[in-house]
Specification:
Strand order of the largest sheet: 1-2
CATH topology: Hypothetical protein af1432
Largest sheet: 2 strands, antiparallel
Helix content: 55-70%
Number of helices: 11
CATH architecture: Orthogonal Bundle
Number of strands: 2
Distance between the termini: 35 Å
Order of helices and strands: EEHHHHHHHHHHH
Structural class: mainly alpha
Radius of gyration: 17 Å
Strand content: under 5%
Shape: globular
Length: 223
């Protein structure tokens, strides 16, 4: 099964899940996946220590269908009753929608619960009212150490330069909020420069983090 349930917590056999995911991804994709897995865990230790392992698990699954063919994605969309439109295909966003469903089918609803499911579903576009868990998976995908794209390097540097001087939970969450705004600014600018469509969830996510300075106001972790 790859896990042991300990009360409300899961104890994951990560080697078991890594082998399962490795069989579905190219070597390059899997190396990225391992990077996201690690980054999600490290970010989890900063923001949600009690969910660091669960974030690591979601990071491991986030691109589980990314290397599938378009035909396979469309087949899964039909199987899971996923509605699609032209923007989903053009923007290569189908893997987030099929990935959460496929992961749940492979590993059960108990393991891929709503939190993990949504972390996978929104890891590419973001959305308004993103949970802290979803935010961490999104950011881990963007800034994992193996990313060499200019925007990824810039965002990673911005986050870690600023988080290193943040001394309270509130200041750390403010760094996270500003990092998210910058991430969406960079993404949207690139899509405009490339004359590509912008998913409405991304626009709404950018405005949400920009305008809502108390975005994580319900967080009450010990500092």
């Amino acid at each position: 099964m790859g896990y042991i349930k300990n009360g409300d917590n899961m104890e994951y056999d990560f080697k078991f899940f890594e082998n399962a995911v490795k069989a579905l991804e190219t070597e390059k994709r899997f190396n990225h996946t391992l990077g996201v897995q690690k980054e999600a865990y490290e970010l989890g230790k900063i923001f949600i220590p009690d969910k660091a392992d669960k974030l690591q698990f979601a990071g491991l699954l986030h691109d589980i269908t990314k290397d599938f063919t378009l035909e396979k994605h469309l087949e899964l969309c039909e199987k899971y009753s996923i509605s699609i439109d032209k923007s989903n295909i053009v923007s290569k966003l189908l893997h987030a929608k099929t990935g959460c469903e496929y992961a749940r089918e492979l590993f059960s609803t108990e393991l891929v619960d709503d939190e993990v499911y949504n972390g996978i579903y929104y890891h590419t576009t973001g959305r308004k009212n993103m949970s802290l868990f979803e935010t961490i998976i999104y950011l881990a995908d963007y800034i994992e150490a193996g990313r060499t794209f200019e925007d990824c390097v810039q965002l990673r540097k911005y986050f870690y330069d600023n988080i290193s001087t943040a001394n309270s939970l509130n200041s750390k969450l403010e760094v996270l909020r500003k990092t998210m705004v910058l991430s969406f600014n960079l993404t949207i600018k690139n899509l405009i420069d490339e004359n590509k469509q912008i998913d409405s969830d991304t626009v709404e996510a950018r405005n949400y983090f920009l305008m809502n300075k108390s975005v994580f106001k319900n967080i009450s972790l010990e500092e």
